Structure formats: C-alpha cells, structure tokens
Q: What sequence folds into this?
C-alpha cells in the first residue's frame, strides 16, 4: 500500500518538476523583448564590431596614398602559417643611394588564422587588424590580396 | 589508400546474439567526428571501442617547425572551448623555462580569463548535453548566456573562440577599459540565470531518471584511468591542478574543490554545475583587485629555451592539460607533447558503459564533455 | 634513508584519504537530512574540500622531499640514472628493468605512484625515449621516469598497461606516432593514421604529399 502511495506521489512530483521547467520557458515565451537575437543580415548598417576585433589584416593609407611599411619582413617571419609574403625592390633615391623598399605586401587571407602576431611584430605599426568579417567568396583566388595600394609610397619620417 | 585491414573493424569474435553498430563518425551525440564501435545485444551495450583520428591535425609535429610564440596560437585549435587555458599552459611552460617572472597584473588577468573560459565551456557543455538527453530548449538558453562571455572576450582580445590572448611574458593587450564593468554585469546577470538551469534540467524528473546511477566510475578506476577534471572529481578523485599545483593567481584566492561521491552521470553533472558557481566566486574575488602595472614583460625578439625538458600542468575545463617541451636550445622545440584531458577521459567509456543500454551510453557521453579536436590533436 | 621512511610512515597514518572518507560520510549524513530540495541539494551533496584538508595535504607534501624520493629510488635500483637539476625528480631506467621498477613504485606504499599523468615518446638519434610523468594521489609527489629503447629500428619496450590502465591508450598513440612496439600490450593498434603511413613524430619522417615544409 505504501509503495502505491509513493508511486502516486512520484507522479505528482514528476509533473511538478516538469511544470517548474515549463514556467521558465513560458516566462521567455511571453516576454519576447527580453530575447537577445540579432537580426543579422538586416542590421548590417548599424552593426559595429568591437574596436579590437580581428577580422583581416589591412594596411592603412593616408590621403596622399602613403603607408608606413618599410618592407622589413618581420611580419613575414612572425606569421605561423606563411600567409604573408613581402616582395621588395631596390631603387636609387635622390641622393644616389641604393635603397630597398616594398614592392608588394602579399597577404593570403585563406591561410590566415587571425592570431595578431604580425601586427605585434610590426615595428612601425604599418599593418593593423581590420573590422571586416564577411569574407566568404566564390573564388579562392580573391583571398590573395596586395595590401599596399598601387602607386603608394612610404610615409616620410618612418625609420628603416 | 591502405588495404582494408580487419583489425580496425572487429577486435573480438562476435557471438551469435550480438551485432555491431557504428555510432558516428557523424552523430550529434558524439560532439564531433568520433566513431564508437559498439557491440550490442538487443539494446544492451557489451563493448564500446572508440575510434579516433578523423580530424587529427598533427599539431605536435607542426610545433617542431614553429617558434614558441607561434605555438601558442595552435593550442587554441585543440580544445577550442578552453582555448585560454591551453594558451596559458604553453606560456607558463616557456616562462618557467626562462625563469621569467610575469607581473602580478598578468597573473590576475590570466586567472580571470581562465575562469570566464571555464564558465563559457561549462555553459556550452550544459546546453549540448541537455540536447543529447532530449531537452532542446536548454541548447538555446546555454548559448544565449555564453554569448555574453564571448562578447567580453571579443572586447578585450578581438576574438571570440580562438583567443590567442596569452603570449610568453604576459598577455597580448591590456584589458579593455570596460572589462571590469562588463564582467561584473555578466556575473550579476548570470547569478540569476543559473538557478533557471537547475529548474529546467537538474530538478527535472525525466532527466534525473536518465542520469542517476548511470555509468558509475569508482574513485580507484578514475585514478587508474587518469580521468581528471570534473569527470574525475565526481568520482571523488581530488585532481584539481588549481588546488594542488597552483599557478597564476590561484595561490592568492580561496575556493573550494568540488568533489562528488557517487561518480555517476548525475554527479558529474552536479560537479560541473557547482563549478560554475565556484568560478563566479573566483572572478568576484579577483575582478576588483587587479593590480596596476605592465601587462607584459619585454621578451627577446627570438625566444630560445635552455636545453632540457619542461612540463607544465594547468586545469582546463575538461581536466588536466599538460605541456611537455623538450628543448635543444634552438628557437624551435625539439619535441612538444600536449597531454589532453579528453584523450584519457574518452577511453574509460568502454569500462563504464558496459552493461548499460544504448540510451544510457548517450547520457554517459553527454556528461563526459568530450571535445574531439582535444582528443585527436 | 631509514629516517625518510619513518617520516613517511608517521604521516601515512593521517593520510588525506582518511579525511576524505570521513567528509564523504558526513556528506552522506547531510544528504539524508536535507532530502532533495532544489538548489540546496546541489550545494550540500558535493563535498567541499575546505582549507584544513588542504593544509593536511601540504604537510604530507613536505613529508618526502624530492631528494628523499630520489634517495629511496636509487637505493632500491642502483643501476638507475638520476638527472640532476631538472624541474622534477627524474630517473632513467634500463629497458629490461622497466616493468619491475614500475610495479615497485606503484605497489610500495611510501611511494604509491598510482596516477600516470602523461606518457609520451621522444625520438633521439640513437634511441627512442619513453617518458612517464607520474603522480601519487596520496602523497602528492611528482616524478618523471624515462626508459630508452635499445635502438630505433626495432624499438620495443614493455607495456605498463597492466599497472596503469590508462597507459594502454597512450601506448597506442606512441606506437602510432613514434613506432615503438610495446610487448604484452592487449590491443596495440594505430589510432590516428593508416597503415601506409610511417611514424610521423620520428625525425627522419618525410612526406612530400601531405607535409609542406618552408
């Protein structure tokens, strides 16, 4: 007889625990404004990433199309995946001295793991992490980028 | 390709009533590409043989060609849910080898990040294992609260999952000016949310019936099989590295090591739920007392370890994580071994799942909290 | 030497294990009193290891220093090579005496290395070394044991999987990646790679198809 009452009590306590769980879900069901879902593709215009967000490596240029990269190759050495290649060229400056400057700063986005080691290694802060994160593309070849813009020069006053 | 070899498929002879079922490699309850070769009689599990290596990435071999700062970023690809602990382990190992003393501020920041990462990991475990056991609502609730931690991570170190925040000698950036405020806000919020977790699942009668007494692992077996972390502690095996071999800021704070007694699935569940409370206590002790100072010491451009062997253990969200570095004095290590907690934990499954039904096997798997890249490395 | 053992013996009487058991019993009592009541149940049924227990443990830690540990091990095994100045006590055992040595340090109550933390292998030019990181859960001391194989070509070593079951799986991994065959191993199979692969963690491993070298 006792076991029978236990059985009934168990059923009721079981139903009670189910109802407590349901209460939690019901609370959120009837207060949908408390939910945190972001309507992602629609809110693109207002979406702001955190300023330290690591989306891709970029090289900022100023209005005169000048960058800070000296082509020293420290970022190439620091990269664990080989996603940065520096191609430099030698030119003769006004004083008649031979000088090595950067020709192309090649960045393979597809190999990058966004570890930030290249940005840390850069002595002249020429490369920074960008905010763009929508990198999906149909063609893999678009992931190979040249970071310095065509015709760009090195900014004055940057130490070699 | 290799010849189809018999030993990969069947290790013992199958008896008349038995049959073999492959669970995985693609199965929701295996949490990744893990294949469990189960020998069943009806619904009863007779033998489970885990087959791993589907996503083996050869990280230990890769590290032999990389420098020490570069190794750090690979470690958060192993156990991606305790990425910061893995980073920290390598950094501590390098710092110990070079006899570098990091500033107090770094120790505090690292410890707070450890505990935030543990919270995030346990939240994901909670929701994923709830889903394994048939409670789909849990999945959304857990991920919703985990989002707050990931936002804190993103604000300070720019990444959500693969943080790469620790570097040898300190941390990569100083904490964000908002860091303390947002962590405190998260904790007050999560202290209200955690009782909801209990209401939803822990007190639920269906859930309790599915986990209580299922898959008992005794303390002796836990030690013998090297089962660490909350899984081992649920069996009463006191294996918390934070307590026994304190590192970073853990010597300065007071916290309890949660030990279970029964070692069944429900106790594993409870120990993890309790660890979440404990993690919040640890963060609250530290968050207001972060000392001023540098966030990193200046290291040499090329880090070279002295010749010798170095071992560093940390407590990751899944158990004891170890880094063993053999150095020959060059800038690349001679050999690196990562002792991953998941590897040791996984192989107890045959021992404890024997004799249970196949649905119980899923419950056992759920409370083991396996991360497959951690096992495969 | 004798003194060291004495000290261990005294401390052995108040091992943390006994504390643990009483606290477990206490917890069960508490559990019975406060039967299933929401949150509180969780807080109480899980044992909190408080500060006193840890103090007791740290005392046992100091009971046997690393020097005493090495002294006891070397007196029992005079052939073993001890490395000085390393991070942890480190001892190298001859490959034919490995199994007996391991059996001894597990069963000896003053050593009681019952927890195999990590087992791995390192490839050296003349031999392959297997490294065991061991911890005692009762005395909380930590030790590294090393064993070298005779040569690299037919690298074999005795298994320790009958002493620590976890070694069975670590040894499979070592066999896969470094190619050491373990004698008397119950189920030695390759975990990660196919049969056609070599052993990638060996230094002479070359693979032009899968591995890109810079």
A:
């Amino acid at each position: 007889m006792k076991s029978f009452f236990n059985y009934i009590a168990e059923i009721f306590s079981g139903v009670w625990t189910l109802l407590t769980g349901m209460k939690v879900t019901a609370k959120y069901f009837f207060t949908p404004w408390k939910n945190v879902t972001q309507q992602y593709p629609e809110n693109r215009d207002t979406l702001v990433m955190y300023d330290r967000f690591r989306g891709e490596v970029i090289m900022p240029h100023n209005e005169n199309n000048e960058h800070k990269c000296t082509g020293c190759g420290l970022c190439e050495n620091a990269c664990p995946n080989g996603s940065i290649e520096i191609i430099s060229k030698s030119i003769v400056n006004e004083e008649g001295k031979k000088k090595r400057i950067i020709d192309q700063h090649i960045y393979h986005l597809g190999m990058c793991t966004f570890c930030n080691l290249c940005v840390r290694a850069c002595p002249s802060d020429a490369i920074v992490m960008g905010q763009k994160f929508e990198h999906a593309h149909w063609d893999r070849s678009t992931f190979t980028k040249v970071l310095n813009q065509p015709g760009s020069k090195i900014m004055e006053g940057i130490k070699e | 390709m290799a010849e189809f070899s018999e030993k990969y498929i069947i290790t013992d002879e199958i008896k008349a009533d038995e049959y073999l079922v492959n669970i995985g490699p693609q199965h929701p309850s295996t949490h990744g590409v893990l294949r469990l070769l189960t020998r069943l009689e009806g619904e009863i599990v007779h033998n489970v043989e885990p087959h791993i290596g589907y996503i083996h990435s050869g990280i230990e071999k890769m590290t032999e060609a990389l420098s020490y700062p570069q190794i750090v970023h690979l470690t958060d690809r192993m156990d991606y849910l305790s990425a910061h602990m893995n980073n920290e382990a390598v950094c501590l190992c390098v710092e110990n080898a070079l006899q570098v003393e990091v500033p107090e501020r770094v120790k505090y920041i690292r410890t707070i990040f450890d505990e935030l990462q543990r919270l995030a990991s346990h939240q994901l475990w909670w929701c994923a294992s709830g889903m394994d056991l048939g409670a789909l609502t849990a999945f959304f609730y857990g991920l919703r609260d985990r989002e707050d931690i990931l936002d804190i991570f993103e604000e300070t170190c720019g990444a959500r999952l693969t943080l790469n925040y620790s570097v040898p000698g300190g941390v990569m950036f100083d904490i964000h000016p908002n860091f303390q405020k947002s962590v405190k806000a998260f904790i007050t919020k999560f202290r209200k949310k955690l009782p909801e977790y209990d209401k939803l699942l822990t007190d639920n009668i269906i859930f309790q019936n599915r986990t209580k007494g299922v898959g008992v692992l005794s303390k002796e077996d836990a030690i013998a099989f090297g089962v660490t972390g909350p899984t081992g502690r649920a069996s009463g095996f006191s294996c918390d590295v934070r307590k026994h071999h304190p590192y970073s800021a853990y010597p300065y704070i007071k916290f309890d090591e949660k030990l279970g007694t029964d070692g069944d699935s429900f106790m594993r569940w409870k120990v993890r739920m309790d660890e979440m409370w404990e993690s919040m206590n640890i963060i609250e002790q530290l968050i207001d007392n972060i000392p001023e100072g540098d966030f990193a010491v200046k290291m040499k451009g090329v880090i070279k370890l002295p010749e010798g062997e170095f071992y560093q253990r940390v407590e990751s969200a899944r158990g004891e994580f170890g880094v063993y570095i053999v150095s020959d004095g060059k800038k690349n290590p001679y050999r690196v071994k990562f002792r991953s907690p998941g590897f040791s934990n996984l192989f107890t499954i045959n021992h404890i799942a024997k004799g249970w039904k196949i649905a119980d096997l899923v419950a056992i798997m759920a409370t083991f909290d396996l991360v497959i890249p951690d096992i495969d490395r | 030497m004798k003194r060291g053992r004495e000290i261990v013996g005294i401390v052995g009487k108040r091992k943390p294990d006994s504390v643990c058991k009483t606290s477990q019993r206490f917890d069960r009592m508490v559990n019975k009193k406060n039967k299933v009541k929401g949150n509180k149940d969780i807080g109480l049924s899980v044992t909190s290891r408080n500060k006193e227990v840890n103090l007791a443990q740290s005392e046992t830690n100091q009971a046997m220093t690393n020097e005493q540990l090495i002294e006891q091990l070397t007196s029992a095994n005079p052939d073993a090579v001890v490395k000085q100045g390393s991070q942890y006590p480190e001892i190298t055992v001859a490959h034919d005496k490995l199994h007996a040595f391991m059996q001894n340090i597990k069963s000896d109550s003053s050593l009681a290395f019952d927890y195999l933390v990590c087992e791995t292998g390192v490839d050296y030019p003349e031999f392959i070394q297997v490294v065991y990181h061991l911890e005692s859960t009762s005395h909380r001391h930590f030790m590294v044991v090393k064993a070298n194989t005779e040569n690299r070509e037919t690298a074999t070593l005795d298994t320790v999987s009958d002493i620590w079951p976890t070694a069975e799986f670590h040894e499979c991994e070592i066999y896969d990646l470094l190619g050491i065959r373990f004698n008397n191993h119950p189920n030695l199979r390759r975990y990660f790679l196919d049969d056609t692969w070599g052993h990638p963690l060996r230094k002479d491993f070359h693979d032009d198809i899968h591995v890109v070298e810079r």
